[in-house]
Amino acid sequence: MINFDVSGALLVGLMGAGHCFGMCGGLVAAFSSQTTTVKIGENLLLKQIWLQLSYNFGRIVSYSLAGAIVGGSAASLGSFFEIDNYLIGLRIFAGLMMIITGLYVSQIWFGLTKIEIIGKFLWKFIQPFATKLLPIQTRPKAIIAGLVWGWLPCGLVYSMLTWAVASGSALDGATIMAAFGLGTLPSLLAAGAAAKTVSSWLQQRAIKVVSGVSIILFGIHTLFIAVQQLS
Question: The whole model's pTM is what?
Answer without folding.
Answer: 0.77
